[in-house]
Amino acid sequence: MVAAFFFYYNYKFSTYKFVDFNKITLYEKSDIFEPKSDTYYLLLFSSRMSDVNSLIKKIPKDAPILAVDIYQQRKNIKGVIYTTAGINTIIKLIQHLNIYEVPVVVKIKKYHKKLYKQDSSLEIIK
After folding, report:
1. What single string gives the DSSP state of each residue in 36-67?
2. Helical (H) or strand (E) element with 75
3. pTM for the complete prediction?
4. What is the Cα–Cα distance from 28 to 13, expressed in whole angstroms?
5. How far is CA 84 from CA 19, 34, 49, 93, in A?
6. Which pLDDT tens digit goes with each residue over 54-99?
7. For residue 77, how many other CB atoms are within 10 A of its CB?
8. Going along the chain, which residue ranges are E strands?
């Protein structure tokens, strides 16, 4: 029984990805995003395809929402940390998390300093 738990834990630990904010630069207006919370909902979407206000209604409110706009518009939305990034950063983030469709949300949890671990599976928002 202990061995089964150990293998399941190792499997779950290896399937979820890390997000390292030392290597990923996100911009809030003119500032660089610095993580302050222990958990976030990371939302990747395109403001050209989706309305962020309707998307955030479908995300739980137990952690701040870190929205990354692929269309790279800079907006001020109450209750949302609205960010943009360079296209190379966005592509790396999409590839690293194995994202195939947007809008998508994933919960991330602080692992060490600026290193966050995926804490939920990817959820496509419809």
Report:
1. -SSEEEEEEE-TTTS-HHHHHTTS-SSS-EEE
2. none
3. 0.86
4. 30
5. 16, 13, 15, 12
6. 999 999 999 999 999 999 988 888 889 999 999 999 999 999 999 9
7. 12
8. 18-20, 27-28, 31-32, 39-45, 65-69, 80-83, 104-112, 115-118, 123-124
